[in-house]
């Protein structure tokens, strides 16, 4: 009987560990080491890198599910582009979330300030079935490292797996390559082009808006380097700007054009006109410690730069929107999908809806009251996860912890969460290499399909809509969270 992934001996594990560690460092499949591995005082200059946590083998994933996820990705792009342009719908979403989430309220206030001042906004995104966990519209990470992980596993399949005692011959595995680095960079380059020629005397640039002390810097650098590879177009100036330094190094030009001008602190004689802002920060409350940080977001939002994402697109990515989309259609409550996809046929909408899982509000509607009774029941809550309107990992409340959590917060704040039925994945085994040590056992895999979408907000016309590779994140089956950067999961790739 063929067993996959194959059992390996201790010595084979040692060899694979050495090969993977060296390949990862040589090819940028790396992160800055966490404090648990290297204390900050041991690397004050920040010159060290370590291999990202990764599986020894690509994890098996049903091809029907993989193909289903790829097939609906562009439809999801179209859906969320439409949602991002529906202010009335998003206004109701913010109202439904309520006062229990000050972060979403503050984001909405930024939008209202821009709107009130009259600025026009541009936006830059029985048979096994795939089910949607979430749709990220801001700081969707690991596109750069996903490509490298795919290349690593293809390399091992060609050179190392055939040498094992339980050998995997070359060509045995079907390993789809992830072109996420190229796909995401192509979307940024197209946005850079769509911005048009600079209307000041300065050269255009792209800003990567990042967090201070970013450990996942190499993932972002891969996208930056990919932007320079075009043979037809000139290189794109790319600068990394910490969120906390926005107001210090940028200003909006005088006049009606509202061009965002950036003066790199290391190049004080140069000024650039910012065409695209790619946000790898600004997605959570920790990025906004004071009013100055909110003024910085307003400063960006009112500028003419193409923003990935705008405030409205960020709000469109909240869990509450996901819950409303997943609400089953009834005679008195038609599906909202038709509102946002009026040109799609019933079959296309059905394929999209087929990826939804059961998600419930915690408000005082009939569905919300039913969800509250489930969430407060020590037995029934075991099949659910409670999610706030947050990105970045580590924010969810699982199973038996839900009743106690809800009782610890004011009932008025419950509406800022949604209750999602846990998705039951098929059992899979693998070995994870994390910080030089092997962890073997059951794992859970989460597939993500990247996409890029550029639309004209005034004309309500999509200019570019492309699928842009995939990401497979894997965690131990005893772990609830799956964020790699948050320290819970690891990088993986697909074996069909």
Automatic annotation (TrEMBL):
Coiled coil: none annotated. Pfam families: GSH_synth_ATP (PF03917), GSH_synthase (PF03199). Substrate binds at residues 220, 473. Mg(2+) binds at residue 391. Binds 1 Mg(2+) ion per subunit. GO terms for molecular function: ATP binding; glutathione binding; glutathione synthase activity; magnesium ion binding. It comes from the Eukaryota. It is an enzyme of class 6 (ligase). Keywords: ATP-binding, Glutathione biosynthesis, Ligase, Magnesium, Metal-binding, Nucleotide-binding. Residues 205-316 form the Glutathione synthase substrate-binding domain. Pathway: Sulfur metabolism; glutathione biosynthesis; glutathione from L-cysteine and L-glutamate: step 2/2. It catalyses: gamma-L-glutamyl-L-cysteine + glycine + ATP = glutathione + ADP + phosphate + H(+). ATP binds at residues 319, 387-396, 398, 420-423, 446, 475, 481. Its cofactor is Mg(2+). Its EC number is 6.3.2.3. One of its GO terms (cellular component) is cytosol. Belongs to the eukaryotic GSH synthase family. This is Glutathione synthetase.
């Amino acid at each position: 009987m063929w067993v996959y992934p194959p059992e390996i001996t201790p010595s084979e594990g040692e060899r694979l560990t050495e090969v993977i560690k060296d390949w990862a460092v040589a090819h940028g499949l790396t992160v800055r080491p966490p404090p648990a591995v290297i204390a900050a005082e041991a690397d004050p200059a920040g010159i060290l890198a370590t291999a990202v946590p990764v599986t020894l083998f690509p994890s098996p994933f049903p091809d029907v599910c993989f193909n289903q996820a790829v097939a609906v990705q562009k439809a999801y792009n179209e859906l969320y582009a439409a949602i991002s342009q529906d202010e009335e719908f998003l206004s109701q979403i913010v109202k439904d979330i309520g006062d229990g989430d000050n972060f979403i309220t503050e984001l909405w206030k930024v939008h209202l300030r821009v709107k009130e001042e009259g600025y026009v906004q541009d936006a830059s995104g029985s048979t096994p079935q795939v089910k949607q966990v979430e749709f990220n519209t801001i700081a969707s990470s690991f596109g750069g490292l996903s490509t490298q992980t795919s290349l690593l596993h293809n390399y091992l399949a060609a050179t190392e797996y055939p040498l094992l005692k339980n050998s995997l011959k070359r060509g045995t595995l079907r390993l789809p390559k992830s072109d996420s680095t190229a796909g995401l960079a192509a979307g940024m380059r197209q946005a850079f082009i769509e911005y048009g020629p600079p209307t000041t005397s300065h050269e255009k640039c792209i800003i990567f808006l990042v967090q201070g002390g970013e450990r996942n810097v190499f993932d972002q650098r891969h996208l930056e380097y990919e932007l320079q590879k075009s043979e037809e177009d000139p290189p794109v100036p790319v600068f990394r700007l910490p969120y906390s330094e926005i107001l210090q190094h940028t200003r909006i030009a005088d006049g009606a054009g509202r061009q965002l001008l950036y003066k790199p602190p290391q190049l004080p004689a140069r000024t650039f006109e910012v065409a695209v802002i790619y946000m790898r920060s600004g997605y959570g409350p920790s990025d906004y410690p004071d009013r100055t940080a909110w003024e910085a977001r307003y400063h960006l939002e009112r500028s003419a730069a193409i923003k990935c994402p705008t405030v409205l697109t960020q709000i469109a990515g909240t869990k509450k929107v996901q819950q409303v989309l997943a609400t089953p259609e009834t005679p008195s409550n038609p599906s909202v999908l038709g509102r946002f996809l009026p040109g799609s046929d019933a079959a296309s909408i059905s394929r999209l809806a087929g990826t939804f899982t059961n998600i419930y509000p915690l408000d005082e509607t009939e569905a919300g009251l039913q969800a509250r009774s489930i969430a407060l029941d020590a037995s029934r809550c075991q099949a659910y996860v409670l999610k706030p309107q947050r990105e970045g990992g580590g924010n969810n409340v699982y199973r038996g912890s839900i009743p106690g959590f809800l009782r610890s917060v004011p009932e008025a704040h419950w509406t800022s969460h949604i209750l999602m039925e846990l998705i039951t994945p098929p059992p899979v085994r693998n070995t994870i290499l994390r910080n030089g040590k092997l962890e073997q056992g059951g794992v859970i895999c989460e597939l993500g399909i990247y996409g890029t979408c550029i639309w004209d907000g005034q004309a309500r016309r999509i200019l570019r809509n492309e699928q842009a590779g995939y990401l497979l994140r894997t965690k131990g089956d005893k772990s609830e969270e799956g964020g790699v950067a948050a320290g819970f999961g690891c990088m993986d790739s697909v074996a069909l």
